[in-house]
Design goal:
Distance between the termini: 35 Å
Radius of gyration: 18 Å
Strand content: 35-45%
Largest sheet: 8 strands, antiparallel, barrel
Number of strands: 11
Helix content: under 10%
Structural class: mainly beta
Shape: flat
Length: 229
Amino acid sequence: MSERRWLSWVIVAATSVGLFGCVDGAGSGPQGGQIGGVHGSEGGCDEEKEDIGADDVSPLGFSAREALTAISGERSVPLTWAKGGSTTATVSVGELVAARFVRSTVAEGDSSGAEPALAVDCSDHLQIDVPLAFSTEDGAFDESFAVTLRVPRIDAASFFYKIDLSALQGSYEVTEVDPAEFKAVAVYLSGALSSGAVSGTISGVAESHPTGSGPDASVSAQPFGVAQF
């Protein structure tokens, strides 16, 4: 399956408060909670995806199961809230659901010859669908959801997930900005996993109400930090 992965203004905004901007999409909008497919002009990747079995050795030299074995299990690390205070975050990666090999190349630029505003990682990698649990000791988060891990090598993986604020099991509420002052507020969880560690960021983007009308109408996005671990 062929698709183009674009870097959107949402990712640019999120990156400015600590999120890594690596997102997969096919132009159809967010799926399964993950951002994807938002067409932008900052640059992107052309990607060819191929379904693979859990034990198939990929062109990267390892199988999805081998990669997941290296990063699966439970990890706990200190988490610091942007508004002050700290707790312990726990991340747990579950069993493999599906896997794909992704051949990725830098997409051809537009005719203007403009350079991308932010670099995009267009390296070959595996995509591995897994359940993931994320919780904090203070009860702010106690969530379980499906994510797609991006795995460029056997001992490293990353993920990026849009949290469904209406379905939270923990006690977290957006207080970093006043949601009543914005058209929409979204919060994202990003993480990086290795054979012995996990780190990540919780950040958000608040979309303003449109100003002006007709062709002069505009909206803006205000990024905000929630936590780092």
